[in-house]
């Protein structure tokens, strides 16, 4: 497992989870149906998403060596996936914080707020795409497969839906409907899909070799770590469904527990993914 790359898996999983939570919150805000009080409370609670993004980018600074290098990393915007990731991620955070401030302090018109929110949505998609494209390196055959973008999108769904459900509970959005059952249902599908992706990757690794390395040898504890990952994910999912079906709503405490467990589970999976790094050359 790529423990030495901890800044990367903390950054990618946390940022992708925050992005997924942002999408759910946008659905809630744009779909209508929320009372003014719940709408306002949800807008305020979205500060947690930007705190997650700030934490994620802080972790990524350890991988760059110093935060000042993030400025240099943005100079090849449009030509480098890393530069695109830095620029779109920074724009996503900036627009999100501006939108949050406009809502919290009642600044601007509803149209201007929607405009900022729309720009943030575009940047969030571009950010996730850039992050995924960075790992699609032709020289790294273990990463350069369709399984990589699938894994990144699934992380955004799994972690993001759990975070969003917690924010909905804190905002008092408990009425049965899409915002109540949608996140847990989508996570259920995503976790099953993650199992399929993992099984496919496990079957693919023995066929990937260089002149001096075998991909299957890079992670000797692959099966055990993935079993631990899915034990955590299914435990959190079971807890989520149990409380939702038993009491008809998700408590904030349970939501936080489920979100933490799912993010930890995805970090284990991402650590395994990073530990599979190898090149086609003599390295």
Entry summary:
This protein has 283 residues and is mostly helical. It contains 10 helices and no strands.
Count up the domains: 1
- The CATH class designation is Mainly Alpha
What is the C-alpha radius of gyration, as a whole number of Å?
19 Å
Helix content: over 70%
What is CATH's topology name?
Formate dehydrogenase/DMSO reductase fold
What does this structure look like?
The protein is mainly alpha-helical and 283 residues long. The chain has one domain (3-275): Formate dehydrogenase/DMSO reductase fold, CATH 1.20.1630.10. Helix content is 74%, strand content 0%. The protein has helices at residues 6-31, 36-45, 47-64, 69-73, 81-104, 110-134, 147-170, 178-204, 222-247, 252-275. Helix 1 packs antiparallel against helix 3, helix 5 (81-104) packs antiparallel against helix 6 (110-134) and helix 8 (178-204) runs antiparallel to helix 9 (222-247). The chain is globular.
């Amino acid at each position: 497992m790529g423990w030495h790359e901890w800044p990367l898996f903390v950054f990618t999983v946390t940022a992708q989870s925050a992005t997924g939570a942002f999408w759910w919150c946008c659905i809630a805000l744009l779909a209508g149906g929320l009372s003014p009080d719940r709408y306002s409370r949800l807008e305020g609670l979205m500060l947690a998403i930007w705190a997650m993004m700030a934490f994620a980018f802080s972790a990524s600074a350890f991988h760059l060596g110093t935060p000042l290098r993030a400025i240099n990393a943005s100079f090849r915007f449009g030509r480098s996936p890393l530069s695109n990731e830095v620029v779109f991620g920074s724009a996503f955070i900036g627009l999100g914080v501006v939108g949050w401030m406009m809502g919290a302090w009642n600044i601007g018109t509803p149209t201007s707020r929607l405009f900022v929110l729309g720009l943030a949505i575009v940047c969030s998609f571009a950010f996730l795409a850039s992050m995924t494209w960075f790992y699609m390196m032709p020289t790294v055959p273990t990463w350069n497969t369709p399984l990589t973008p699938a894994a990144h999108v699934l992380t955004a769904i799994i972690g993001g839906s759990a975070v969003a459900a917690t924010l909905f509970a804190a905002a008092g959005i408990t009425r049965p409907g899409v915002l109540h059952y949608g996140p847990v249902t989508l996570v259920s599908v995503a976790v099953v899909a993650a199992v399929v992706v993992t099984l496919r990757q496990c079957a693919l690794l023995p066929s990937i070799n260089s002149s001096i390395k075998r991909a299957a040898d890079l992670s000797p504890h692959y099966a055990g770590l993935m079993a631990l990952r899915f034990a955590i994910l299914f435990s959190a999912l079971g807890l989520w469904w149990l409380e939702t079906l038993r009491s008809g709503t998700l408590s904030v405490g349970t939501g936080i527990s489920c979100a933490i467990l799912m993010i930890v589970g995805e970090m284990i999976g991402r650590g395994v993914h990073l530990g599979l790094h190898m090149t086609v050359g003599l390295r």
